[in-house]
From TrEMBL:
This is NAD-dependent epimerase/dehydratase family protein. Gene3D superfamilies: NAD(P)-binding Rossmann-like Domain. SUPFAM superfamilies: NAD(P)-binding Rossmann-fold domains. InterPro entries: Epimerase_deHydtase, NAD(P)-bd_dom_sf, NAD(P)_epim/dehydratase. Belongs to the NAD(P)-dependent epimerase/dehydratase family. Signal peptide: none annotated. It comes from Pedobacter jeongneungensis. Pfam families: Epimerase. Residues 2-230 form the NAD-dependent epimerase/dehydratase domain. It comes from the Bacteria.
Length: 317
């Protein structure tokens, strides 16, 4: 049985849905820090879980006979700069609890998300290579870089089949992102539909690696289903789909939303974005497990706008 920790988050919610479609609803136990009443009416089976409580995690995994864990609980880059201690604790101690329990329960596989945030200001800006990430300058990036080495350590020392992806900024309409620097690229759609304008917290020209959520979910399932012996990278795989600036995204949205107006008011998140690469080289993912993105900017904008209006959960938030 599969346990998804952080099942109410931006990635966790969609990953849970995809796993339930693939393996059957009752083979996928959703877990999050929220009370059951806040977890979403059709989100069952569900359990309230604090990944910082190692004893509770171990007991749950034993009782439910968990054989795979997807750990999506994390504090993202923007919140991480405001709550450094919490970001380090949840992102790293939460991972260590999970890795340790996975070994104790002799689990088959573990998935853990890293991020392009592991690259720092001195990494190449274009096509940043897979090679060991360089000097992240955010608490979030530091926690993800450290986590990658822990994943490789548990693979080498305990034979744990833990796999990881360095997600770019992810864009989706089914569940709101929480505390990221790339969240502008999600908020912009909701504001474009409701107000026909958006005030962007990053300045024009801020190029960032991005990916549409369907591609990110497919990449995760494809990585987890790849033969273990094919996976040469046991820190975390670079993953790439597209890169764009706020004005490029605004231009594409403007083709669908008449008179859409984009203005700029950069805040502390500009420094975070400036420390990250413009684009990522995902050569190893393409070679080791045949990764290939399907959504570019045009397709993503079209699909987002055909869904945001109707299923706009944020407008109810
Ligand atoms: C963030 N969405 O903004 C996350 C992601 C690459 C960015 O890690 O923090």
């Amino acid at each position: 049985k599969i346990l998804v920790i952080g099942a109410c988050g931006q990635i966790g919610a969609e990953l849970t849905e995809a796993l339930r479609q693939k393996y059957g609803r009752y083979q996928v136990l959703a877990a999050d820090i929220r009370d059951k009443s806040q977890a979403g009416v059709d989100n069952y089976p569900y359990v309230k879980l604090d990944v910082m409580n190692k004893a509770q995690l171990l007991m749950l995994c034993r009782e439910e006979n968990i054989t795979q864990v997807y750990l999506l609980a994390a504090v993202l880059s923007a919140t991480g700069e405001q709550e450094p201690a919490l970001a380090w604790q949840l992102n790293v101690d939460g991972l260590l609890n999970t890795l340790d329990v996975a070994v104790k329960c002799e689990m088959e596989k573990v998935f853990w998300p890293s991020s392009i945030a592991v690259f720092g200001p001195d990494a190449p800006k274009q096509h940043s290579p897979q090679a060991n990430a360089s000097s992240p300058s955010t608490v979030y990036g530091i926690s993800k870089a450290a986590g990658e080495y822990w994943c490789r350590y548990y693979h080498e020392k305990h034979g744990l089949d833990v796999r990881s992806l360095r997600y770019p900024g992810l864009i989706s309409y089914k569940s709101p992102p929480g505390g990221g620097t790339t969240d502008y690229a999600v908020d912009i759609f909701h504001k474009a539909v409701s107000d026909q304008r958006y005030l962007c917290f990053l300045k024009p020209g801020t190029m960032l690696p991005m990916m549409y959520m369907p591609d990110a979910i497919r990449a995760t399932l494809e990585l987890m289903n790849a033969p273990s012996e094919k996976l040469r990278i046991r820190t975390s795989y670079n993953l790439s789909a597209m890169s764009f600036t706020p004005e490029e995204l605004g231009q594409e949205i403007g083709k669908h939303i008449k008179d859409f107006k984009l203005d700029y008011l950069p805040d502390f998140r500009q420094q975070i974005a400036d420390s990250w690469p413009d684009s990522i080289d995902d050569y190893d993912a393409r070679v080791d497990w045949a990764w290939q993105a399907e959504f570019g900017l045009r397709e993503m904008v079209g699909d987002m706008l055909s869904n945001v209006g109707s299923k706009d959960l944020l407008s109810k938030a």
